[in-house]
Amino acid sequence: MLKQITYILCFFVIRFILAQNSSVLDSLLKSIHNFKKEDTIKAKLYSSIGKEYHNTQKYNSAIDILFRSFKIYKSYGDFFNAANQLEKISYIYFDANKLDKALFYAFESLKLSRKISDPYKRMKSENDAYYTLSEIYFTKGDNTRATHYYRQCLILSQKINEPLYPIYNGLGNVYVKESEKLVKKDPILNIDTIVNPSRYVQLLDSALYFYQLALKDMKKNNLIEKESISALVIYSNIGSIYFKKNEFNKALEFFSKAMNIAEKENSIIDLIIIDVNISNVYIYKNQIDKSIEYLKSALQLSLDHHIDMYLYEIYDNLSQAYVLKKDYLTALQYQQKKFIVYDSLRNIEKEKNFQELSVKYQTELKDSENKLLKAKNEKQRWVLTSTLVGLLLTFLLLLVIWRAFTITRKQKKIIEISRNELAEQKKIIEQKQQDILDSIHYASRIQSAILPEENYWKSLLPKSFVLYIPKDIVAGDFYWMVDTTEYIFLAAADCTGHGVPGAMLSVLCNNLLTESILEEKIYETDAILQNVRSKILDRLGRTNENIQDGMDIALLRLNKTDLYKAQFSGANRPLYIITNNHLEEIPYDKQPIGKYFTNQPFTKYNLHLNTDSCLYLFTDGFPDQFGGTKNKKLGTKNFKELVLKYGSSPIYQQHKLFHDFFLEWKNEQEQTDDVTLIGIKV
């Protein structure tokens, strides 16, 4: 009796006091383990603790404790509660985005549900499993199976008098997803087009039908107030359908109802989303000021509550709204903020990916070393064994001549074993080489992500081209661009070496260039190079050795309002300017960005360009390439003649001309270095 009272007290403590303190939950869990008897009260306590672990996203602990609850219930033949624990485990895997495991345990829950003898409990348990299956298949994008299980769930829910609105809402979501498959992005006009308009409207009408049934069911069961967040979701879904059907007044009506609930519940994220949705409606109603009003409300909520996930969309929408108002300066300011948010999110993701790649590489390298060491020890043991056996056989050979044939067979067997062992070691080494190569390919995708996107580049410099040919999978070369309100900065850079070492240094240098301009607001080209050099020396460490190591770079700044005004600084790389078939070379400082014998201040050149000028920034890969009929280096002189020759051609043809020449010159020779060439027509 005393033990049962203790169980009950533990249950209420879990429910009302300890839900927010996982360390106390852990201590309580240890105390419960001390009760040797495995009864259903203990199973219920386990279930409650598992729920709290799930709520605090301690998924592994939640799954472990729910399995204990499941085993107790199953041992007592309580299939209803046992199936319920499996359904909970399925939802934990669902929340952890492990959908295949979530499916497995949902089906296991359904299988166990069919053993329940009580008809009501059996249908209730099957209903829960069907709903979980429908949610998982919807998330996996399998709308056919999702619809099947939603309809199975609908049949059972009607029989046991359960609320139907979650199922109707789910079916509405399925039809919305199907309609989205008919919307294609036009790559030229950058607008959405609908492949099959009549089918698209039918799917929207079907979605609206089920959302309205969901709302009707909530009203019928007086759940609008009790399940207010669910009502908010349904109002928002209906508003979104009316928006897609261009019925803007009805869309505003339902978005406003959702807004009222969000304000009452103080649901900040929902308030932000609804503000954005309403602003979109006003854009289409051509009420730009109203749209801006709601966008600024969403922006203020996001900033006040540090909710960054919607800032990119809000800034983009504000920029477009001010374009429609023909307030281009404000539009540009919001566009700039959008790119800052984008770069921030992208840098976080790149840093995370880079760290994961480094950890993976080090782990695999350590595993490879351990396996090779183990193989080496095995080989030494076999050699020692072979030697001892050989000595023994030699001694016996002196005494027993007639056993010579037997000894020969044993030696042959030993040699065969050694050959097989060597073959196995070779196979292991080849596999590790392939693994490392796969890791380098992954690093290449990370490095490609730091390069400016073609659309972004062309939007700022439409009359330009970039020729970029890495020597290896990853490169020490990179090209770079950043724009501010007043200037466009671009560069061609070559970090020491190529392959993995050069690529790692290029990621660091790229980030330091961007950081100098966007965060530290340094706009003079010589000061930018000086700042990057200082940070590289700090981060890579200083030594007493005179090591020529770092980055060569040609850095150019263009004035957005007057492209004929430019500023240039170079570290071991010049700038070529072609004007009226004349080539002018802007000199550079003969020192790299990084460790060097002496570090002198960098020089900046303020340039005044002509209307037909062509500017070229490049690394040393092109002029240093061996090839031609005599397999000699192209050289700076020949490269200047080539630039002068092609500089008079239209800018849109020059990329192909330089590319074709490089391939023809290189021919069958190995590429000497990474190649980067940037051309700009003023």
Characterise the protein shown here.
The chain is α+β, with helices and mostly antiparallel strands and 682 residues long. It is built from 22 helices and 15 strands. The strands form four sheets. Strands 4, 5, 6, 7, 10 and 11 form a six-stranded antiparallel β-sheet that branches. Helix 16 runs antiparallel to helix 17 (404-450). The longest helix has 72 residues, at 328-399. The radius of gyration is 35 Å and the shape is flat.
Radius of gyration: 35 Å
Portion in beta strands: 5-15%
Oligomer: single chain
Q: What structural category do the secondary elements indicate?
A: alpha+beta
Task: Give the termini separation.
Answer: 91 Å
Q: In terms of per-residue confidence, which ranges show pLDDT below 50 for 5 or more consecutive residues?
A: 1-22
* Total DSSP helices: 22
Please tally the β strands and state the result.
15
Quick structural gist:
With 682 residues, this protein is of the alpha+beta class.
Highlighted features:
682 residues, alpha+beta, five-stranded antiparallel sheet, 15 strands, flat
Task: Annotate the secondary structure layout.
Elements: H1 2-16, H2 22-33, H3 40-55, H4 59-75, H5 79-95, H6 99-113, H7 119-140, H8 143-159, H9 165-180, E1 183-185, E2 192-194, H10 197-220, H11 228-244, H12 248-265, H13 268-284, H14 288-304, H15 311-324, H16 328-399, H17 404-450, H18 454-460, E3 464-469, E4 477-483, E5 487-495, H19 499-518, H20 525-540, E6 549-559, E7 565-571, E8 575-579, E9 582-586, E10 593-595, E11 605-608, E12 614-618, E13 626-627, E14 632-633, H21 635-646, H22 651-666, E15 675-681
Antiparallel strand pairs: 1-2, 3-15, 4-5, 5-6, 6-7, 6-10, 7-11, 8-9, 8-12, 12-15, 13-14
